[in-house]
Design brief:
binds phosphoric acid mono(formamide)ester; binds norvaline; Rossmann fold; globular; 12 helices; alpha/beta; 306 residues
């Protein structure tokens, strides 16, 4: 049995296999066909943080695959009152077929997975958001045909940035990450990405100047400066991230036909300007839709592996 906790646990071939399943199911859906790959299965969705896309895409995805999903907010289940992850994992394993968790610490997610008898999917932690990255990569495949892909991530060295590091390290494309001093990616994630990059041939580079990072990039992406759980740091972060907004001046330095990605929700006037978000280069709603398809790929893949 496999879990989907971080891209680090997957080979390039496995990541491509998941995407292949996702594209196949997406194509079928667009032709009006649905196959019940997960007929009568149940997915538990534990949320310790807010969500629009993750919740709706997993719930609808499971339904379209012939199963059903249960929304389990930590405000309403005993986990929120202190029941341990390891007990919750063993109880839910007796009732569900699969579980998705959005929580704070990657360690807590791993603890759940350690005790779980059913596949566990990371729906975002403070460290990683791997399901998002598969949707992002699907969107890149759909919009960019060039061989030498260069992705520039501008902003906080957060869960999204860490996940870009892992995706690039596994798949072997060039990644440039520009963050303000003090907001670089997790050093442990950087170390392991750079080690993996030696095998995949990925060129990964870090910058403190966003202009340097985006030069001739084929994909420009960013994320909020204030992730869930960091609300108290808002005023300091807004000051520290000055100059890191992705606006027309930044996009002009990238390739002419570069695309703009954002996992959403986006904060206009902070990490990205209204003009860029609403521009022709922005493919953020294709990206959001691909959450539905990518996650179906993940669920069907995990089901095949048990
Ligand atoms: N991108 C993303 O995960 O969005 P939600 O927080 O709305 O799920
Ligand atoms: N970095 C953001 C992503 C939201 C989808 C957060 O963790 O809040």
């Amino acid at each position: 049995m496999r879990h989907f906790l971080t891209l680090k646990d997957f080979t390039k071939e496995e990541i491509l296999e998941i995407l292949e399943i996702a594209f196949k199911i997406k194509k079928k859906l667009k032709n009006g066909k649905r196959k019940a790959y997960l007929e009568n299965q149940t997915l538990g969705m534990i949320f310790e943080k807010s969500s629009t896309r993750t919740r709706v895409s997993f719930e609808v995805g499971m339904y379209q695959l012939g199963g059903m999903a249960l929304f389990l907010s930590s405000n309403d289940i005993q986990l929120g009152r202190g029941e341990p992850m390891k007990d919750t994992a063993r109880v839910l394993s007796r009732m569900l077929d699969m579980v998705m968790i959005r929580t704070f610490s990657q360690k807590e997610l791993e603890e759940f997975a350690k005790f779980s008898l059913i596949p566990v999917i990371n729906g975002l932690t403070d460290t990683y958001h791997p399901v998002q990255l598969l949707a992002d990569y699907m969107t890149i495949i759909e919009h960019k045909k060039e061989k030498d892909l260069v992705v520039a991530y501008v902003g906080d060295g957060n869960n999204i940035a860490n996940s870009w590091l892992m995706l690039s390290a596994k798949l072997g494309f060039e990644l440039r990450v520009a963050s303000p001093r003090g907001y670089e990616c997790n050093p442990l994630v950087i170390d392991s990405a750079l080690r993996l990059a030696k095998d995949s041939g990925a060129k990964i580079r870090f910058f403190h100047d966003p202009k340097e990072a985006v030069k001739n990039a084929s994909v420009v992406t960013t994320d909020t400066w204030i992730s869930m759980g960091q609300e108290d740091e808002k005023s300091k972060r807004v000051k520290d991230f000055k100059g890191f907004i992705v606006n027309d001046d930044i996009m002009e330095l990238a390739k002419k036909d570069a695309i703009f990605l954002h996992c959403l929700p986006a904060y206009r006037g902070y990490e990205v300007s209204e003009e860029v978000l609403e521009s022709k280069q922005s493919v953020i709603f294709d990206e959001a839709e691909n959450r539905l398809h990518a996650q179906k790929g993940i669920m069907v893949f995990l089901d095949k592996k048990r």
